[in-house]
Automatic annotation (TrEMBL):
The keyword Plastid belongs to this UniProt entry's keyword annotation: no
Protein name, as recorded: MerR family transcriptional regulator
Domain HTH merR-type: 38-91
Family matches, as CDD domains: HTH_MerR-like
Record keywords, A-Z: DNA-binding
Pfam family, one: MerR_1
Record has DNA-binding as a keyword: yes
Domain of life: Bacteria
Gene3D superfamilies in UniProt: 1.10.1660.10
Residue intervals passing through the bilayer: none
Length: 231
């Protein structure tokens, strides 16, 4: 993949973007990207935006390329920041292809950013309105949403495949309850590390929550596979 494939259009060689402009460019691919995450990556030495005399951050094309590499390596390849930083120090981000250098994808690598209304979700997941009602009734997806993202789409598709084999949403409540308990466990570990008034610490917590969540998914999948082999 050429280096240009890892770049966003609109960042000229000499252009400098504000943090808001960077977020506007990257949030289509990374909807959860926040000011605090950018501050955290800067505090960790992954990016070094210029500062104006007034103290505002200005991001170059190289900064945006590096951000894309870091975010994709985290999302698609489950790399910890230490490994990403070592790679950047040795190779840089220019011309690096996340898909070719990584060892394995993370559990959430296949999620894609989408924004669907209810009808669009039904068409994409190939379900009817009654099935969505049932998922809402049993807490599998949040009731009353006007638009749905990639996570909801993934839930509905998986639930449909299970329903095709006779496992309907009412049978899956234990999975929802388990996910809620796991989320509470992760929150209890991560949230105390947030320091009021410190944007970088909020970014650190966001990263920790994500990493713990991916590890929990990996562990759950491995335990399920092990149990199925014994059944």
């Amino acid at each position: 993949m050429p280096a240009s494939a890892n770049r966003r259009p609109g960042v000229g060689g000499g252009a400098r973007l504000s943090i808001g402009q960077v977020l506007a460019q990257l949030q289509e691919e990374f909807p959860e990207l926040s000011h605090s995450k950018l501050h955290y990556l800067e505090a960790e030495g992954l990016i070094s935006p210029e500062r104006t005399p007034s103290g505002y951050r200005k991001y170059s094309r190289d900064d945006v390329d590096t951000l894309l590499f870091v975010l994709r390596a985290q999302r698609d390849r489950f790399w910890p920041l230490k490994v990403i930083k070592e790679h950047l120090l040795e190779h840089g981000a220019d011309g690096s292809d996340v898909t070719s250098i990584a060892s394995r994808p993370g559990p959430s690598a296949q999620l894609r950013p989408v924004r669907l209304d209810r009808r669009g979700l039904m068409l994409e997941a190939q379900v009817d309105d009654d099935f969505l009602d049932e998922l809402e009734q049993f807490g599998m997806i949040e009731a009353g949403l006007l638009f749905f993202g990639g996570t909801e789409l993934e839930i509905v598709k998986a639930a449909r495949r299970l329903a095709d084999e006779g496992l309907h949403p009412r049978h899956l409540v234990m999975l929802r309850t388990s996910a809620e308990r796991e989320a509470h466990m992760i929150d209890s570990v991560a949230r105390p590390r947030s320091r009021p008034g410190d944007p970088a610490s909020r970014g650190e917590v966001e990263d920790l929550v994500r990493d713990l969540g991916e590890s929990m998914i990996t562990l759950h999948s491995a335990l399920l596979r092990a149990r199925l082999r014994r059944s």
